[in-house]
## 1
Amino acid sequence: MRVLACLEEKELGYEFIPVNLRTGESKKEPFLSLNPFGQVPVLEDGDLKLFESRAITKYIAYTYAKNGTPLICQDPKKMAMECVWMEVEAQRYENAAAKLTWELCIKPNKGMATDDAIVEEYEAKLATVLDVYEDRLANSKYLAGDCFTLADFHHLPTLNYLLGTKIKALFDSRIHVNTWCADILARPAWKKVFAMKDNK
């Protein structure tokens, strides 16, 4: 969803090729030649083959910088700030958010029991990250500054899941984080991709 939303933000045409994860299609050739870890997504752009969603979105944002929404900052100092917050998302936020998404969203859908001790541990870790976000967003509309960038964009998939769980209270209780969430989740590109997911 992260990659599809990026393509939509950049107003780029693409061909979406579904991979049947239930039958293990991603764990055998020819898919393994695209991603040796056997995971989606994969992007093919001419002779370039990429995997890992954040790497793909960075490639799209740089290569097609003049198309659609400018997701990267051109000014070196602004770019540095964007890089800082992309790292925060990947190294601090995602660690807790992905664990909570697994426990509260994915496991129940697979008929597995949620581990309440893990939820409690990672809820506390996420709260610490969101406290930092609250301070940051009190002084700027978006994480990297006044413009929506990949630093914000990369949060969308887990945000979407977590706001449908009891963890929503962590976001709602922080006024600036709550406003930021509402803003980025309302983006037309994200809404379009989310609707595509529901129609599959």
Note: The radius of gyration is 17 Å.
## 2
Amino acid sequence: MQSDALEAKIGKWTKYLQITVKLLAGERKICDEVFEGISFNKDQCFTELARTGVAVAKTLLSFGDAVAKSKRSSEKLFVLLDMYEVMHEVRSEVEVIFQDSFCSEMREAALGLMKLLAQTAHEMFVDFEELVEKDTSKTNVHDGTVHPLTIRVINHVKFLFDYQSTLKLLFQEFETGSDTESQLAVVLTKIMQALQNNLDGKSNQYKDPALMSIFLANNIHYMIRSQAYTW
């Protein structure tokens, strides 16, 4: 699926998931109030009454699972972060709605998807770092100006800063008790270092030492200026 189409799908998925969880939370509340103080298995009753809503939730979670397991790409990272963010938002409600043994499968599926999204996104940081360092694009910048790879990587990093709060939550999944801000800084520093290493290699295409220096200076200046603006 093309990235634009996937983003549109995930936008709808996010909306439908939030609506479904809200409706199920309302049904759970009504069920608990109606059967309060009565010697009756209200959890089983809720499961039967909310059967349609549970089926919709199961379909949504299955779709999310398929997206998380599909082929990776640098653009897809932001889709996964959007999905992780909404799953984190509804987590507490999901744990209340599916608190009993009759709904344990749904609860585990929801929490499992959240962990899968976090794990996949976390691994994609490493993938992107390796992709940048090993980039072998043959684009020739004859006049020593900023290389397209530099622009692409910096734009990617800028987008990541729009997800700072989500990334902090994600890093907590793996680095309990540590400084999540420092973890984000480490990840971004590794990406920038990978870019620097690649540019060093690309500079060797210039036979003129002066042009080689100009190429490196222009790209490093672009990186520093962009970091100063963003960070």
Note: Residues 3-114 form one domain.
## 3
Amino acid sequence: MGESPGLLKVMVVQGKRLVIRDFKSSDPYVVVKLGSQTAKTKVINSCLNPVWNEELSFSLSEPVGVLNLEVFDKDRFKADDKMGHAHLSLQPIISAARLRQIIGASSGETTLRKVVPDCDNCLLVESSISCVNGEVVQSVWLRLCEVESGEIELKIKLIDPPVAPSR
């Protein structure tokens, strides 16, 4: 049985240039999925550039998959409207965490790798994965798919599982 690679904390920071789904604005919220786990942010009323600053936590298990997110417009009397979706492969941050363990980075800030926009992610711009005081972190801007515009900023932190004491 494989060992769990840890806990993933996803900070949904903000959205920019989200699409209008109501008369003049939208009431957006974000649903983040990892495998069978789902979490969502609060609704920000009448805003196309919302700031959530909400941390969502997911347990990781092998094989590590893809982080999916969908943005919706909250509607009171009908089904919520889709405002776009995006995905991000978690393999780069898992590989960077393994690299951190190999090189023993624990203090200060060390860039472990860079991730460029490609078909495995919806990155808007290149993203760095760093070790900051022993924690593996990545800040990303994701472009929303299948909509006219929209971007979401996430800060991802991988928390390693506790190491069992050796006998």
Note: The two ends are 20 Å apart (CA to CA).
